[in-house]
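Propose amino acids for all 127 sites.
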């Protein structure tokens, strides 16, 4: 089950990337309010495209940042939609792969055996 370990590591890595992107968007929002040096839109979009789409959309929504900039908002929406399609396709491939099917079958078989044993124990203890 090495692929499960890889999936956990990849998920943790993406979580960290998204937290970092959220923090960068928050930093840019603070700079916008204080008229400081800003993070370029190009860099913000690249950060979203490199795996930080959820963090970028979350920051955009929660901080009300870059919501009126239509070219930016449309591009960010396209990036996030593309990432969602990628995750859906990857998930479908993983679910229908042979090792995953075997793991699901083994888990289902184990669950069925546990239910059978539990039911047998309950049956024997019934008056």
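Proposal:
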């Amino acid at each position: 089950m090495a692929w499960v370990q890889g999936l956990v590591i990849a998920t943790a890595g993406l979580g960290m990337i998204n937290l970092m992107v959220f923090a960068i968007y928050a930093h840019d929002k603070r700079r916008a309010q204080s008229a400081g040096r800003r993070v370029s839109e190009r860099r913000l979009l690249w950060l979203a495209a490199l795996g930080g789409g959820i963090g970028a959309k979350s920051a955009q929504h929660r901080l009300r940042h870059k919501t009126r900039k239509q070219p930016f908002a449309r591009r960010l929406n396209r990036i996030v939609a593309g990432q969602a399609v990628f995750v859906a396709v990857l998930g479908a491939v993983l679910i229908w792969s042979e090792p995953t099917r075997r793991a699901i079958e083994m888990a289902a078989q184990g669950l069925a055996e546990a239910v059978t044993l539990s039911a047998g124990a309950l049956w024997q203890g019934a008056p």
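The chain has four helices and no strands. Helices lie at 2-33, 41-63, 70-95, 98-125.
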